[in-house]
Amino acid sequence: MKKQWFEDRIGSALAETNPMVMAKMEGGIAVFGDTQFLEGYSVLLPKKEVNSLNDLDLAERTLFLKDMSILGDAVMQATNAIRINYDILGNTDNFLHAHVFPRFSTEEPERLKKPVWLYSSDHWSDKSYSYDPKKHELVRNKITAYLKEFEVI
Q: Which segment of 17-31, 49-63, 87-101 scores lowest on mean pLDDT?
């Protein structure tokens, strides 16, 4: 049976079948997050599947991290976030990917001081937080427009 795009996020991004792709950059592929409880949440995927940042050579690592920061700039500009949190974990999905989370002054002050991962688990699974083009198209388009300047075809 053919895999769904989300079962192979990197492969589907490279094959241009991943609908969440916003831009292919020099060191990675910027995708919009499946969940949007923090609107603008995005992810940078590498251009090849590896387990960790350390599996890339120094030049690839440099490009990946540069693109991660540019994606952060795009999210910041599109959302007016007060800051961006970056995470490279690989604990659940055992492949390199960088999370780019906007943080907002509208979050509860105690929550804002803590990692995004301490939000309750329903924020990751509740359909009300899922990406919805009707609700999130404007922010996604702003991020994508910013990234087009850095896109590599």
A: 87-101
Contact criterion met (CB below 8 Å) for 5 and 17: yes
| Residue 147 identity | L
pLDDT in tens, 129-139: 999 999 999 99
Q: What is the pTM of this model?
A: 0.94
* 77 vs 4: CA distance, rounded Å: 32
Q: What are phi and psi of 130, to 5 degrees?
A: -70, 155
Full strand arrangement of the beta sheet holding 21-24:
21-24, 29-32, 42-45, 98-103, 83-87
Question: CB-based contacts of 132: which residues, under 8 Å, 6+ apart?
Answer: 36
The radius of gyration of the chain's CA atoms, rounded to the nearest angstrom, is 15
